[in-house]
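[job 4471] stage=fold_predict status=RUNNING
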Amino acid sequence: MTEVTVRIEDEWVAAAKRQAGDQGISMNEILRQAIARGLGAIDEPVRKLNLDK
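[job 4471] inference complete, writing C-alpha cells
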C-alpha cells in the first residue's frame, strides 16, 4: 500500500470524523473506502441516512 497526501475541504474532514466515530473505525479507513467506492474498486452501495424531514 502506498501513502499519499491529499488536500480536502474542511467539511469533508468533519464528515469523515463523524462517520468514523459512528462506525468505530479510523477516519483514514472512512476516506480509503470512499475513494475506493468512487473509483469503482468496491461494489458496496453507498449507505445514506436521510434523517432530514
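[job 4471] summary: Residues 6-41 form one domain.
[job 4471] exit 0
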